[in-house]
Amino acid sequence: MDKGNIMAGKTVVVFSCAHVDPSVSNERFNWLGEFLYDLKPDYVVDLGDGADMRSLNTFDTRYPEAIVSQSYEADIEHYNDAQERIRWKFRHHRRKRPAYIGFEGNHENRIKKAIKHDPRLEGSKYGISFDHLQTNRWFDEYHEYENSAPAIADYDGVSYAHFFSSGNFGSAMSGMHHANALLAHRHHSSTCGHSHKRDLKFKDASHPNGVIGLVAGCYKGAAEGWAGQANKEWWSGIVVKREVEDGMYDPEFVSQSRLKAMYGQT
C-alpha cells in the first residue's frame, strides 16, 4: 500500500497492546472483526504488542512455576489465530477489506532479542523466527523496529508508533499527562500505545490546523498478575478516528465491553 495514496477524510480504527496469550481466549478478536466488517474503515492501525510472547519473557526465568505452561509454538499459533479472526469475515464474504498497518512492539521484539542473545535459536523450521508472526501475510505495511526502537510512520498527518521516546536513551514517554507530553515534545499529531492507558489532548489552531495527542489504551483480554493495582488504570478497547485529515479527526473510544455487548452473541 502506498502511503501517498491514503486520501484525506478517511475512517481509521486504531488499537494497541492486545497481548495475545494462549492462556486467554481469542474471542475478543471475533468481536473486533465483526465491528470492522460493519464499520468498513479505510484502514486499521495495530500499534504493536499484539503477540505477548510470554515464552520469551526473561523476567520469568527465576520462577519455574511461571514458565511451566509456556510454549513458543503456542504463542505463535495463538497470535496468528487472532489475526485470522480479525480478517475472516471480509474474506468469507469476499468484501473489500480495509488496509492493515502494523507496528512491531517491544513484545514482538522479544523474538529478535532472544536470537541476538543466542543465535543458535534462530530457524524458520525448527527454531524461532520473526517470520513466524507472518506479518507479510497479515499487513499491507508493517513497521519493524529501527535503531533498537519502535518505528514512526505518518499517515494522513498523524504520526504513529508503538511508543515515542522521551529522551536520548530511548525510554518510552509516559506519565499522568501522556497525551499532552506527546504534543509538547513532537508538535505534531501523534498516536501511540504501550502504556495500556488512554489519554487524549487537543491543541486547536496550531500546526496550522491543530494537533491531537492520543494514547490508545490496550486490547487485552485479562488482567495481569504481575501488574497489581495498575490493572485498574488500564483501558481496554479500540479508537475510531473519523474524518481524518491533516492530522485532525473526530475520535471515538469503543470499549471492549461494548464490543462484547454488540457482538458477543453472534
Please provide a written account of the structure.
By secondary structure, this protein is an alpha/beta fold. The chain is 26% helix and 21% strand. A 6-stranded mixed β-sheet has the order 4-3-2-1-10-11. Helix 1 packs across helix 7. The chain is globular, with a radius of gyration of 18 Å. The model has no long low-confidence stretch (mean pLDDT 92).
What is the overall shape?
globular
Mean pLDDT, nearest integer?
Answer: 92
Radius of gyration: 18 Å
Largest sheet: 6 strands, mixed
Strand residues, percent? 15-25%
Distance between the termini: 32 Å
Strand element count: 11
Side-by-side strand order of the widest sheet = 4-3-2-1-10-11
Structural class: alpha/beta
Number of helices: 7
- The low-confidence runs, each spanning 5 or more residues with pLDDT under 50, are none
Order of helices and strands: EHEHHEHHEEEHEEEEEH
Tell me the helix content: 25-40%
Offer a quick outline of the entry.
This protein has helices at residues 27-39, 64-67, 72-93, 109-117, 135-138, 178-186, 256-263, and strands spanning 10-15, 43-46, 99-103, 141-143, 153-155, 158-161, 190-192, 198-203, 211-216, 237-245, 248-255. It is an alpha/beta fold.
Question: Secondary structure elements and their pairing?
Answer:
Blueprint: E1 10-15, H1 27-39, E2 43-46, H2 64-67, H3 72-93, E3 99-103, H4 109-117, H5 135-138, E4 141-143, E5 153-155, E6 158-161, H6 178-186, E7 190-192, E8 198-203, E9 211-216, E10 237-245, E11 248-255, H7 256-263
Parallel strand pairs: 1-2, 2-3, 3-4, 6-7, 7-9
Antiparallel strand pairs: 1-10, 5-6, 8-9, 10-11
